[in-house]
Protein 1
Amino acid sequence: MIEVKNFVKHLQNKGIEYFSGVPDSVLTPFIDYLVKLDKTIKHRIATNEGSAVALASGYHLAKKKIPLVYLQNSGLGNALSPLTSLVDEKVYSIPMIILVGHRGAPNIPDEPQHNKLGPELLKILKAHRYKYFKLNKDNYKNFISKAIFEAKKKLCPVFLIVDKNFFKIEKKNKKAKKLKTKFLKRYDYLNVLLKNKNHSKSLFVASTGFTGRELYSVGKDLKKESQCFYNIGAMGHANQIGLEISLNSKKKVVILDGDGAIQMHMGNLALLGKYKSRNILHVLFNNKVHESTGGQPVANQHLNYSLIFKGCGYDIVKTINNLNQFIKEISKSQKKLTALIINIAPGTIKSLPRPKENPKYLKRIFNVI
């Protein structure tokens, strides 16, 4: 495993001083180190991978220097649009380094949402004629140098690929003080929600990450698996799945979103506001971090979600700070498009499970009728 400090220092020695991307669990030590250096380097946590490429493009246009974009391979789809229509040598020829955390790499067990793109990653890069280097502890310095040389020479993006456990994980300081907060955690609210009589027959659609995993845990304990859809991939799109279900079902649909997911594709809220489905209760868990990737801050921690929801056309928007407020709201007879913004503390239960069942089975038992 590689010391993150040495990795970043080598990049800096080669002239890389700008970093932008979306948090990823494979790259967690790398991103955490960048966050610590925020005051001494240029680092932007983007809303999504395509935006990270656009930010990096703007940096190159302004400074004529090579930026680095980081992402996990499941975010490559978001990045490909600006990479092929803006950055490409046949368009503006913008050089950059793309550091990819390889989820679902061959012979490395991973979650089902990576079963397609993981094994196909290198084939996809080859199909787009992108130069890439697969890094390990022995070659990373040499390959970083080659990648930067290639990007400068051909004015194009060059990829660096790292597998799980490439970076050495720093030991956490046991004496570090925990952040004091008056807020409860997401799991506390989910437990109350699924037990609420007013939602005994509701459908629950959860965003990727801890939100979906916690819904799985609570739903399984309460034997409500047939009412739950866990959007294990496609971050930011759970609310669109919930919208279309609500327009084709008589049941109430509870969308369970995270702040990172909302920010990734915030334009989705406009469509929810347009159709004003009275069957939707949209719950936003706001803890201001990308929790499942290590707790890195979301792109913007200071958004006024209430104004955003109202501006998109939601009829009722409430901010929730405690369980009593939450119980009062979910127990009401809902007849208008409603959003509940719940301020929560980061953290989850110990040994949080992942869905063990095949996604096809989970789809089959999900009952919208």
Protein 2
Amino acid sequence: MKLLQVPTASLEQRIKEELENNPALEEGDDVDEADNEQEDEYQEEEDYDVNDDGSEPERNKNDEIDINDYLNEDDFPYYKTYANNYSADDEHRELPFSAGQSFQEMLIGQIGLRPLDDRKQIIARHLIGNINDDGYLMRDTDSMVDDLAFSQNIETTREELDDILAVVQDFDPPGVGARNLQECLVIQLRKKEHPTESTDLAIKILSRHFDEFTKKHYDKIQKKLDITDEELKEAIDEILHLNPKPGSSMEQTSRALQTILPDFILHNNDGKLELYLNSRNAPELRISRTYSEMLEGFSKNRKNADKNQREAVLFVKQKLDAAKWFIDAIKQRQETLMSVMGAILEYQYEYFLSGDETKLKPMILKDIADTVGLDISTVSRVANSKYIETPFGTFLLKSFFSESLSTDSGEEVSTREVKKILQDCIGSEDKKRPLTDERLAEILKEKGYNIARRTVAKYREQLDIPVARLRKEL
């Protein structure tokens, strides 16, 4: 189950860890035919062995050796079977990597360009240390005054801190060091090299009527500032071109990018769907031949085994068992992944042929679990962490599951289909008069989907689409 949850991007690292920890596990194909023939010959020789009295000796297969033959009543502590194959003289090679300048380092580098004494530079560094990756100062002034007193032994005041913060807010990128969105946008407008009348009007709107602006009550703003539609539109355009997260615009930001590595690859070969498992999910692993032969040698001489040999065979048997378990677990992971994805592909065949979301059938975890004969929790683990690459995009398997909804004709459709229609309606609406939830519910009813306004609002929120008032544009 743990290996099943591991994404493809992390599976290689997990296999490398197992290879490093277990010398009985190796990379590569299974043993060749010659080795197999030698094993068969050796097995046949064992089969025809007889005791002095003519009776057939009792022998176990290599993977079923009775470990009790090698052990006495004393237990072996773990440290006796521990092997350290590394010497202090070994050369350790490390792969170098390049690290860009972080956002905070870039801001600290600008402190030296301002006329600040040593004391004020320490305060400026402390302020920058409290700026997050988006460029906002999230800590209140009083708390920072106390922090400086305790950590730096510097007594300061709110007024001095605000003065130094004003210097930091003049750094690049514009808007950095702001304590909220309103202040961030106003700072950017005031730092414009060539301000216009629209810039001044935009500053007034944000400074005096920020609440009305966020709620898009443009008629109230026009009435209070006594401006025309054209003047308001130009001022709004100025604001919309600002950056609400100045820190994230820096290429040197330390935030790491997440790369999605698909677990499955789907090809459409002239109308025939072909599903493949990502090759990284199918590593070539084998049992070490050296360790297998070592155990075979012990099995021949077990009657004369001394204490050291018994300790050695215990170590070898543990490592071989662990290697076989890991190889079996990897194979079972591959089979489970292909089984679940194959069932999903068959269930949603029409969708995968075209990529049309309206052709998605209602499908829940139980449907797939019943098809493949697995537990629902197992299917859930696959669906929640695995991706498939298709000719029309890369998707999380979870996105193909949806509840059912009945139309006026009694036909069951996927809620994903309804959301797609809802998204298309909002995408093609008149932004000056956006569609309300009531109107969207009426449109869906006209198309045969009997859905209440509350359900439309729920689907709209799941699609991260704001209410009609916030979608309004000038």
Protein 3
Amino acid sequence: MKLKQLMAMMAGVALTCGVALAQETNITFNVNQAIPDGDLSGMALSTNLTLPTLAGSISAVTVSLNITGGWNGDLYGYLVRPGGEGFAVLFNRAGVTNTGSQFGYGDAGFNVTFSDASSDNFHYYQNVGGYSLSGSTWAPDGRNIDPGSDPNLFGSTSPSTFLSSFNGYGANGVWTLFLADLSAGDQATLVSWTLDITTVPEPSTMALTGVGLAGAMLLIRRRIRS
């Protein structure tokens, strides 16, 4: 390889290292467990993530859930990051509002992804024309209120707890998914859930890599001149 080609290649690598090298980790948990019916204490599923690929800080999180049966308007679910920093309400009694039914939507289950990138909030999914509860992506409900609150409060409360609340924190440790069913009579089952985390290296790591490459290029130039 010619010297100019080598230096151009190293310069390209150095430029790449100056940009956050995002790394995505996707983990699916097969559960097949019934969500306690009519029980606010619900169920908490905790998983300890200590994979080497999760180095750096979080830049994005999405969550997918496959739930069968039940009554969607009864369901409440949220995700908590390791250490308790970061909290996102995924769904909070979908369809319950001050202008609609106090019981929420009666669809039985869903297989969807929650992402802040979506403009369609899951709480009002029936208002979206041609909506689908299979393979679709929705913005998390985000309403940080007691799921047993008066229906009027659901209509007047704005979403405030998003998946972006995890950004900037480390990803390793115990993540907890909490699910509850507020009303007895329709049994829902969590078939599986998927946690998708994108991390980027810490600025200090990227800086050291860039400095190292720059030093190597400088050494090559000195050798040429001598």
Protein 4
Amino acid sequence: MMMKMLEVAKIPVLTDERREADMDNLKGYYEDERAKTLHKDNSWIDEAEEKAVKVISYQLPHLPPNHDYRIIFMHRKIMEVLASQRKMMERRGELEDDIPDQVMANIFQKHLDETIEWLKNQSNIRTLYISYNGTLDDPETSAEKIAEFLGLELDIEKMMQVVDPSLYRQRK
């Protein structure tokens, strides 16, 4: 959702267009596979200058320190994230683990807390925290916060139009 909002606001997005839309993400993924392995190779980050790149929180500490970053950090209710991941694994026929959701939620919350603390201590990173659920409820406010954070005049109306509450399926 966020990458689509940025794209319609005329912010270039860096994507390899490998992963097509599917039942888990009907609007597509807006990913670059290299972002999943920043811990192994981050030499390509120069290509991302002035572009939006989707990076999962586990990879953020592997961003090269010689750049300045503006990170829009999307928060979603942890139990919804877990439900979404479980459904995706189910559709792919991947084996489910037997770790209880609450245990996974605690692990993920600990990771998020550590990541947020790490972000606070990075002089080359500015971070805006945006709620996934809040954006579904009030896309205008989220779009306005993004425009202010980026210091750009963005098309708030277009950004709001791509927020599609019908895609909000994994609620827990």
